[in-house]
Amino acid sequence: MDFFKWAAPFYDLAMKVVGHGGSLKQLMERIEPAAGDKLLDLGGGTGQLLDYLPENVKVTLVDSSEEMLVRAKRKERKQKVKYINARGDNLPLPDDTFDYIVVADALHHFTKVDETIRELKRVLKPGGKLYIMEFDPETLLTRFISGAESLAGEPANFYSPEELSKLVTEIGLKPEIDGISKSLYILQGSK
Ligand SMILES: C[S@@+](CC[C@H](N)C(=O)[O-])C[C@H]1O[C@@H](n2cnc3c(N)ncnc32)[C@H](O)[C@@H]1O
């Protein structure tokens, strides 16, 4: 089953019910891009992160699900946005392009996580920053989400903050961990 093909029509409503917007807002409060900065939203889905971005940022939203992208494109945006249907492990984007990359609540849905982080490092500008918002697999909430997603055929590739820090370090980014809640954390990786 293609999970996001099935979930796309319900996604925005479901995320509203669980208060996903609050987490995205907290994530963006840590980033504060300047006018003209280029930001990649990988696994951007229906584009919910864009609700919390200033208008003068140049956004590229990449997602592997055409159904999620269709919904992202329907929304009116104050930012200049480019939409691309692609996988994170094979980005059709040039080297050293982005000031910021955000992967919000998406990495655990990816199958080739190592290759994806390598691609993100490649397209990040020197001095640029990668932000990954993920669920900590040690908590009860994440165990529940992981079980439900596995049943739906998703990879449920949940990394602990320590495991993700180790991975991004091996790939050549400098990690820092910041907690948002008991279950959610943000990894910041600097190039
Ligand atoms: C839970 S949604 C998160 C969407 C958005 N970031 C948000 O916070 O609302 C996960 C998204 O990751 C996308 N996705 C899954 N695997 C992917 C991959 N390998 N490359 C790019 N996007 C992927 C899915 O299509 C889906 O839109």
What's the short story on this structure?
This protein is 36% helix and 26% strand.
Task: Indicate the topology.
Layout: H1 3-18, H2 20-29, E1 38-42, E2 58-63, H3 66-74, E3 80-85, E4 98-104, H4 113-123, E5 124-135, H5 140-151, H6 161-171, E6 174-179, E7 184-190
Helix pairs in contact: 1-3
The structure holds S-adenosylmethionine.
The site of S-adenosylmethionine has 21 residues, from α1 and β2.
Q: What would you report as the Rg, rounded to the nearest angstrom?
A: 15 Å
Largest sheet: 7 strands, mixed
- Can you tell me the CATH class? Alpha Beta
Quote the CATH topology: Rossmann fold
**Low-confidence segments, ≥5 residues, pLDDT <50?**
none
How many domains? The number is 1
Q: Supply the helix-strand structural class.
A: alpha/beta
Q: Which superfamily, in CATH terms, is the homologous superfamily?
A: Vaccinia Virus protein VP39
Q: What is the residue-mean pLDDT, rounded to a whole number?
A: 96
Approximate helicity band: 25-40%
Described by the principal axes of the CA atoms, the overall outline is: globular
Per DSSP, the total helix count is 6
Tell me the total number of β-strands.
7
* Known CATH architecture: 3-Layer(aba) Sandwich
Strand content: 25-35%
Helix and strand pattern: HHEEHEEHEHHEE
CA-CA gap between termini: 36 Å
Bound molecules: S-adenosylmethionine
Quick tags:
globular; 191 residues; Rossmann fold; seven-stranded mixed sheet; 26% strand; single chain; alpha/beta; 36% helix; binds S-adenosylmethionine
